[in-house]
Amino acid sequence: VESRDSIEDIWGPRTTHAGVWPARVDERTVEEPERWVQSACVFCSTGCALDIGVREGRVVGVRGREVDRVNKGRLGPKGLYAWEGNWTRDRLTTPLIRRNGKLEPATWDEAMGRVVEKTKELKDRYGSGSIGFYNTGQLFLEEYYTLSIIGDAGIGTSHMDGNTRLCTATASLALIESFGTDGAPGTYDDFDVTDAFFLVGHNMASTQTVLWMRVLDRLNGPNRPRLVVVDPRRTVPARHADVHLAPRPGTNLPLLNALENLLIERGWIDPAWIDAHTVGFDALANAVRDWTPRRAAETTGIPAARIEQAAEIIGTSPTLVSTVLQGVYQSLQATASAVQVNNLHLLRGLIGKPGATVFQMNGQPTAQNTREAGANGELVAFRNWNNPHHIKELADHWNVEPDRIPSWTPPTHAMQMFRYAEEGSIRMLWILCTNPAVSLPELRRIRKILASDDLFVVVNDAFPTETTELADVVLPAATWAEKTGTFTNADRTVHLSLKAVDPPGEARSDLDILLDFARRMDFRDKYGGPLVKWVGPESAFEHWKGCSKGRPCDYSGLSYEQLEGGSGVQWPVREDSPNGTARLYTDGVFNTKADFCELYGHDLMTGAALSADEYRAADPNGRAILKAADWAPPPEWPDDDYPLMLTTGRVVYHFHTRTRTGRAPELQGAAPDVFVQLSDQDAASAGIADGDLVEVRSRRGLVVGPARIGGIDPGLVFIPFHYGSWDPHDGRREREDGGPTAANELTITGWDPVSKQPWFKYAAVAISRAGDGAANGAARAMNPDLEAEARR
Amino acid sequence: MTHNDRARERKPGEPPPPPPSGASAPEPEPIAPASPMPKAARQPDPSRVAPGRSAPAPVAPGTPPPSTPAGPVAPDEHRGSTPPEVAAQVGRVLGQARSAEEQLAVALGLVMDRHSADPELRDVLALLGSWSRAHGAAIEPFGDRYRLVPSEQPERLRSALLSGTRIGGPGVLLDLQDLLTLAFSVKTLWVVVSQGAKELRDKQLQALAADAGEQTDRTIAFLRTKLMHVAPQALTVPMDVPTEVKAAVPKRATGGGIPDLTWGPIAAGGLVALVGLAGVLVGRPFLLPSLGPTAALVGVSPGQPEARAWNTVAGHGGGLVAGLIAVILTGAANAPTVFTDKVLAPERALASVIAIALTIVLGILLRASHPPAAATTLLVSLGGIRTLEDGLNLAVGVVLIALAGEGLRRLRLHGLPPTPVEAPVSVTSRIRLERPPG
């Protein structure tokens, strides 16, 4: 059964409405299921609830959950197809240990024994600081929480981060800088009633297809809201926009400063609300004063008149929903820019009200949980590592002495961990469920670090990847549908995902692997009892509830039982609000109180952390913080050698490094290969025709791929980042036409000073026609989302 | 025009253009193409060290008219004119602040250079360096009102710091400690300037001191933050020396990035080799003992003002003259010499006392203190240099070593051309938790 061919028809039929989004159930099964098991989709942060169809112990399909508030039955192409990639023949089913340079099968006892022996040896000889954990946005809440206690109180290392550093670290920091703690202020229901959308660096049609359906249903229905899109490419949302702003790479901040300036200058602000609910207005007004539309136009390349049009929509629309994603987070001055979008809402008082909110969007399905559980460089349950009371509270909950938790420095971010590994001071890196050998910038350097004999690399994964190739121990992990747990989407909705089938071979859930590790390491609390007091997902969840109590991400009123059967529930869920909380800050009181806030904030231009004393001296005490920043010109300009700018991104059919979507035949078939998107002018001057093979070079590496011409401004080059060296057809490969395909061969090692998120959307490159130039796949679908829309 | 064309059209020295404006895309509205370079990137504008305050305009060649008329520094209404003594006193502190900001910028560049494999240091230190340079430039126009006196003190402070072989985490830690020392000294000067400006009711100077002081606070805050992050790892995890050394290799070979252990012997040896080779080729003894200390000083402590070319030339010159005067005064010219006769005559001992005292006086008066010159003057007083020809030989050697040494010194201290990152026009991202108007 297939409700639609979602490769061809990505977003499905319209269901317009006058305020309440109707249901539409999307389904795809390859056989008739015997039973349905409740879960949610793991291919973006939207968090669509779905049921898994099971027959004879196999997954045979999925169906959207009509009862769920997030998607009301809908699913996108990745949700409908990607599950098929989970059970391919090359699944990892047994642990592997590197012996004499080769990965060889081993028993769990041998593999875990090796990991434990190495951990103890390093801890004794070099201290906890020689061990690091690099995790993901794909595990479940219970797994992150277990990882956190093992890292913080078990080993006592501050080196703990997730690959969420690469996608949504800025979301978290931007929320903290403005509102005091992490957590989206609004709800997806705001989409159904808002008067205007402002999409900043967010190709929602590709990355969050079901949310885009929700927008399309408004754009095609009554009371059409207006749409402003900031994107350097003419993406699908850009084509639907009333105003499309295409800034030069690295110039988000001047654009946003100009919009704020126009709002202030034309009086499109709410002075009474600003007065009652914010601090920092004068400094902000001063900082943006010089960013006139004309000056912003010179810097961004966007016509001044168009900036004014956008400002008028943003400034006068009665309500507004803004969403921010990688176009901001992975570009320069990421946090500074993301915070300016918050400021636009604060200036107008458009937050915490129906149809008025800002989404600092997430990328991965469980990114929110790695942040909540403290596995990504924040302290557990949005606690402040710089606040001794918060540390004490956590230590009490864990039954450990406070000084066991490394709180004297913030957790080490991923890029710094790799730097420490490069310097030889981190000697063991445990990588869980992520593929840094394709997803980190400047891959040549990353491969060298991971391949070094001095670094002991442990990898948990379900599939062989470019990273497992470089590991010393590989632990086969169970994946979605093979384990139970909860996860939380970008509007704070918690979903339960139940185990539907057994993992293949000897694969185990990451939770079981971590619990086994804790048992073998014999971690103890201060009374001599076991440090990790839970044995499975539900008992982990129960322990987490206590840990989160009283914090913004309060799960204390929630239970597996409540999550089973109905819709997902939005945290905070306290005993007195068992049905969750749709909107935060409805009373205009924010989480900025010095005793409560998650961090004391940063200098947005240097990343300098404010001290507790500085913050307390002028405690915002519940007011939101308007923070300003000026433009810092980019570190690398195009020049004679590298005259073009590279930006990287995603296509609708793939997720991350294609570990799963590349194994799903329909998705891989729809977008089988990397492509290089160029403007007509740049292609013509380099003598490149559509489909020709192009070599793209930067100071750091080379990528080869077929050209796709159009849809982009001159001077810009776009390459999707999904394509590593792994190929689904013949395993590891040399591309038939030669040359590497991973966009990150070209990117820069550099990051935002505040969120430490690397720059994936900024690198100077040069292009030339490769070899004889003919790509032998003229029929390859390229830039598939635009093509799919064109076909409709 | 394609992007390639645009890049080629660029004049040397002009910063590269930003990405193309998309002018060729089918855009109905006109795009402002007149200036390919956004204003902020084209020219630092220290008059806008912080927005909304009037700081003096910079005297930078080619600066476009500032967006807000800052104008020349006008005399203060409160007081008709500043008395010359006060102008000199304030000018001394301002001159010291200017030198201190310059030295901080140099130090930031040096550390950035050393640890360029660490992107955070690379990027943020470049930004902070641009702030310091902007502060230094913003002091310049106050020369109209106060007599700016350059100060050597900041240079001495800087050269006492930041030396040695500094690689890996422990090296970063040491460098951050030293940068903090410099930044605190800059901050102190701005406090002094600010207090004086208030007493003088000099609003413009008050504004500059407030802005520059606040920005220095932000520099300190960054250094402190980074220090807190790196200290635990650098102190407690034993480092793997070969790996650290490999990882610390800068991406570009620069004078500043090479450890002392390598640079010092090569630089000093090279200087002696140069003078020695010239002497051998010409057949004259240019190489004399007092050039040894000079070569060592330039090689090991290039940051010391004593190592400058002026100090070298004027210092040794002073030594020669002082020695000559001493020999004449004591009548020691015909006394036996230490070098050939192996005896120490009383006249020569007395001449040596006078010579060294005179050398030091001359060094201070000429602002050319150079300890190796003390060796030169003793060479004269003890009879090692007796004829005009001897003196000329030494002079040639001194000039050679001073010129070559200055080149090495600059390479070492300013290995990188000034970073192209420019100061942003305003700097207010630090939260100001004041109540909004209302």
Could you provide a short overview of the structure?
Helix content of chain A is 30%, strand content 17%.
Q: Which terms would index this structure?
A:
heterodimer; A: 792 residues; alpha/beta; 7-stranded mixed sheet; 6-stranded mixed sheet; 29 strands; 17% strand; globular; B: 438 residues; mainly alpha; 15 helices; 59% helix; 0% strand; flat; disordered N terminus; disordered C terminus
Describe it for me?
The complex is a heterodimer of chains A (792) and B (438). Chain A is of the alpha/beta class and 792 residues long. In chain A, the strands form seven sheets. In chain A, strands 6-5-17-16-15-7-8 form a seven-stranded mixed sheet, with helices on both faces. Chain A has a six-stranded mixed sheet with strand order 23-25-24-29-22-26. With 438 residues, chain B is mainly α. Chain B is 59% helix and 0% strand. In chain B, α6 (168-199) runs antiparallel to α7 and α10 (291-300) packs parallel to α15 (388-413). Chain B has helices spanning 3-9, 39-42, 84-114, 119-139, 153-160, 168-199, 203-236, 241-248, 260-282, 291-300, 309-330, 338-341, 346-365, 372-381, 388-413. Chain B is flat. Mean pLDDT of chain B is 76; it is low at 1-72 and 416-438. Chain B has 15 helices and no strands. At the A-B interface, α11, β12, α12, α13 and α14 of A face α1, α2, α4, α7 and α8 of B.
